[in-house]
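Whiteboard transcription, Tuesday session. T.W. wrote the structure tokens on the left side:
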């Protein structure tokens, strides 16, 4: 989708950047437009390799608080995920504060497969089960602090960090006024009232938090399988249960979901009433992101309308449940 955060570079500028990064020029350039924030190009290099270049937004563009240094988080997450056995695109080079263009970039090996968002293989349940196992391995990576260290939004406990993440996001509406279904103070109060369930989370774990079909590449040669999970820039350190928020976006996680079965093949996961409240918190958080990020990105109104409407109605529904859960049983 088109976004104000995507840089526009000429082929000559891209060639110069890749020469600095990889010591070779370009023979072909194709912009990839499926993403929402960073500018992305598929490149054919002079030495015959194919690569993908991701470039951060212009350094003078003020983004959301959690979006500071996103590509630095992605570079770290790729290396950590690969070490845990998760299929990812190989990181060829990471450049931070490029002296010519400013900002950060990642140069990744191009994938051979296709986005799951572009195809509907008959073995969808099997692929979803495979994806669950990969996410469990992703979540097996532990850290030292909760939250977004790259953005300076952290906490000693998951409750402290998550509430700081929500507060920072709602605080961004002061710079980017956003139509929300309820006032920011009322939304924050709903999160705080339900937050005691977050005390169950005691170890910071790596969470991708952007797993939707567009970020899963499939190898369709023979029996379809997952080639790679991509776009790790939204990752944070927190509750692995939050990983299920984006694969069930605008819906709900159910016990018979193959994603859950695949996850449990790697590690146990029990869905208690408290766990469902935690998942409601994470759904509410991603719905807020989808609404507030339009401030700096300025999506085309017609293209964004479906996401905006779905996020608004889903956020309203989840906030009602959170308020009810915090109030407890009546009578």
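and on the right, the sequence the group agreed on:
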């Amino acid at each position: 989708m088109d976004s104000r955060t995507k840089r526009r570079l000429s082929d000559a500028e891209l060639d110069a950047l890749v020469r600095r990064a990889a010591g070779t020029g370009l023979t072909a350039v194709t912009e990839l437009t499926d993403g929402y924030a960073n500018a992305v190009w598929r490149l054919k290099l002079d030495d015959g390799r194919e690569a993908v270049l991701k470039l951060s937004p212009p350094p003078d563009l003020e983004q959301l608080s959690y979006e500071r240094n996103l590509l630095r988080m992605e570079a770290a997450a790729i290396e950590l995920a690969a070490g845990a056995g998760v299929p990812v695109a190989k990181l060829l080079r990471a450049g931070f504060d490029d002296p010519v263009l400013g900002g950060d970039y990642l140069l990744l090996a191009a994938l051979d497969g296709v986005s799951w968002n572009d195809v509907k293989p008959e073995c969808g349940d099997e692929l979803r089960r495979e994806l669950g196992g990969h996410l469990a391995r992703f979540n097996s990576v532990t850290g030292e602090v909760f939250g977004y260290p790259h953005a300076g939004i952290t906490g000693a406990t998951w409750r402290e960090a998550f509430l700081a993440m929500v507060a920072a996001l709602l605080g961004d509406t002061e710079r980017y006024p956003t139509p929300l279904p309820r006032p920011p103070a009322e939304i924050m109060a709903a999160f705080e009232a339900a937050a005691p369930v977050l005390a169950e989370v005691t170890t910071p774990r790596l969470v991708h938090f952007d797993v939707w079909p567009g970020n899963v590449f499939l190898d369709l040669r023979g029996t379809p399988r997952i080639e790679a999970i991509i776009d790790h820039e939204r990752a944070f350190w927190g509750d692995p249960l939050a990983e299920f928020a984006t694969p069930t976006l605008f819906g709900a996680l159910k016990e018979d979901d193959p994603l859950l079965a695949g996850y449990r093949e790697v590690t146990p996961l029990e869905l208690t009433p408290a766990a469902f409240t935690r998942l409601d918190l994470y759904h509410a958080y991603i719905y807020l992101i989808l609404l507030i990020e339009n401030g700096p990105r300025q999506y085309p109104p017609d293209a964004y309308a479906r996401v905006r409407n779905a996020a608004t109605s889903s956020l309203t529904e989840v906030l009602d449940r959170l308020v009810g859960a915090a109030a407890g049983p009546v009578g």
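Someone added at the bottom: The domain at 114-327 is CATH 3.90.1200.10 (Aminoglycoside 3'-phosphotransferase; Chain: A, domain 2).
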